[in-house]
Known about the structure:
alpha+beta; elongated; five-stranded antiparallel beta sheet
Amino acid sequence: MATYGTTLVTAPAIEPITTAEAAQQCEVADGIAYHERKLNSLIQAAREKVETDTGRAIISQTWDYTFDLFPYGLEPIYLPKSPVSSVTSLKYYDTSNVQQTLATTVYKTFLDREPAEIRLKYQQQWPFLYGEQGVITVRFVCGYGAAATAVPESLKAAMLLLIGTWFENREAEMPVITNDRAYDSLIARFMTGDEFHCYGRTLWV
């Protein structure tokens, strides 16, 4: 069975929720500076949870998607996060175990789809590979944009719900689960599929 993995290359430059917005959600009228470190930690944790639960990137960030095999025939490569704004490169190790960058004349991208796809152009074929795991890496940029204003309000509301619950129960000895029904309803329409890791066959060598 083929394997795959993702690695964060460039983290978001900002968070979609400001400290002031988090403080308002947590009803912290005074002493915001005192709670600033905790609030900022909860903001990042909430963003990461929403991203994990939905399969999305919130603020622009760069990832490497590494896997073993090119798809069979005309099947696409599915990118594992949405929305994708650009594909930076597609690199692979050739049969001599030398890393190469695949020319964009070989493939085309469909970034308006979810998941985003990379497909062969007409009369092109995927190159032969060195027979090891993790020989293909796609570097891509994903997220709604570099500004918080581009993020859907439902995702922000889901993050604020998490932040408020976690802050209120910050002294709890056990992890606290927020209102599952409210949280789930906010992120439901943003959930992405899992098509991207379905390759399962012999390596091309």
